[in-house]
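Changelog-linked ticket: S-adenosylmethionine example.
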Amino acid sequence: MNTWMSNAAFGIFFVLAATGLFFFVVTRGALIVRGLAGAGHESSHVYPIYSNMGLIKLVDYQPVISAILLFQYPRLVTKIVEGLKATDLRNKKVLVTSCAFGNVIPRVVEASLQSGAEKVLIADIIRNELIHAKSKLAHYSGKVQYIEDNATAMKQEEGLADANVMFFLLHELPHHLKAKALSEAGRMLKSGGKLYLGEFHKPEPWLLRILSWTYFKVFEPLGLALWDSHDPVLLLQEMGGWSVERSTYFFGNFQVITATKH
Ligand SMILES: C[S@@+](CC[C@H](N)C(=O)[O-])C[C@H]1O[C@@H](n2cnc3c(N)ncnc32)[C@H](O)[C@@H]1O
């Protein structure tokens, strides 16, 4: 290998290692430190990357967010948006339970209003996330309401919404709160309302499964349970009162669940 190639290889390795270290520090690493410090409150499971405004603005770029989801992000959002567009939401409300990076919120808001929704409510446990979401939704002021609330213990009135979008929240919640978040999502829906869940899923090919397993073990250990013990479809079926459909993407690595409340 000549000097140019070995420098290039070193450069690529350095950038990947530095990026991995950065994400570890602002996600799982911070939670480990927080755990050691013994601080426990309702948002102690939330990574600094979602609470510190500087970090939120640093990371929230569509190509970065798409890359984290192996460039499947637009397909997952499109599935949810198509569901919203196919629903008559005239004079109805749509709830977005927890913010997410990228353009999912603007696309969900746009689709909901196109389908006639009178209001979109965006709920998150972190105020900075709501402020950041608002900065992406300047066109829709008056139609969007921002609520500081906990997905696992919602303070809103029951049955307020006809659609509820939860995008990549479950895998970040402690296991005992995963089913709670689903039951709260259902409590917020009217009968006949739909819950749209975007999430990770157990991939089929063994190589992808090993890579995905390693990613979860290092960065997001709470996510692996979605593969088996806390599979959202099983949780919803155990809960009862739902019709559930699942679509998987990219060799089964991701899923969008559409659950209709009876
Ligand atoms: C839904 S996940 C999104 C993760 C995903 N990687 C993305 O695309 O951004 C992160 C969001 O969930 C919020 N969150 C975490 N726990 C919550 C809870 N119990 N209730 C409401 N929002 C919560 C965080 O504040 C953050 O805005």
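Closing comment: Example verified and attached. The pocket of S-adenosylmethionine is lined by residues 46, 50, 65, 98-102, 124-126, 129, 150-152, 167-169, 172 (CB under 6 Å). The chain has nine helices and seven strands.
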